[in-house]
Target: Transcription termination/antitermination protein NusA
Amino acid sequence: MNTVELIEALEELVKEKRIDREIIFTALEAALVSAYKKNYGTSQNVKVTVSRDTGDIHVYAQKEVVEDVYDNLLEISLEDARKISIKYNIGDIVDIEVTPKDFGRVAAQTAKQSVIQKIREAEREIIYKEFIEKENDLITGVVQKKEKQNVLVDIGRTETLLSPNEQMPNEEYNHGDILKFYVVEVKKTPKGPNIVISRTHPGLIKRLFELEVPEIYDGTVEIKSISREAGYRTKIAVYSKDENVDPTGACVGPKGVRVQNIVNELKGEKIDIVKWSKDPAEFIANSISPAKVVSVEVNEAEKSARVVVPDYQLSLAIGKEGQNARLAAKLTGWKIDIKSQSQVQTESGAFEQGDDMQ
Model:
């Protein structure tokens, strides 16, 4: 490889990898300094320059201008320095060209390895900087393939794995599927950035609503809390300071289109949008949605509540395997005990009967 071919190869790499060309040339020059010292066994201070235009390579021995020379490799007298240029003074550094005739061959051999290494480092840094800005945000990825229990996903400049814990239980991941993912964490490692993505994180819900609902994006409607059992059901509590804005209606959208878009992205996961209230009883009643509530008794000290629902609404309020009650408790941060009206009446009757027996 001659110098022209070297430049062409470097330019192609710069274009392909979208890396600052100066980073590549600086790395090459540093590598050539080491190559020169290794091949020509010198302890001189050496500088190597590579022309950004022609690829011409020049090696310079750098010598300090001194009054008395004790080391010819590192020093030059003021008299000799001024034979090169009258501008030199004591303490200046003089560059004296010492480029070997066959140094282009050495350079070509050295360039490949050093530049590839620098490209890897630069790429890792670029990828890290790009994705650290997307931490706690959404990205779009393309499913590539399954690797054991993991799913390999192309997320743009790099690929990452969707681990089993971050996969939705009811979701198939097929080659070519385009999905949105939540970036949980981005960490630097010796092998490059480790990008943790998720389909199960509650943050995915939050960001999807921000995308679909302009009122959330601009702050008119606020997401107060989210509870989620990924792939099955999510509850989201919303609130607006503007009395003229219905926060749940804004999230549902015209003819339900906004929430439906999110449900479609989540492959059919059910979403309950409930109105947040600073009144715990009202908020807890709303959180039991879609079940209707007769009454709520709250115990502020224990942060617990008893919710009474019509008999025919009990199974709906509790949910399959207790899911609705569980999500409501997580959404509100309160312990919730759900009873039907007949259960309350029975308990009340038993209590009164006990009083009579006393």
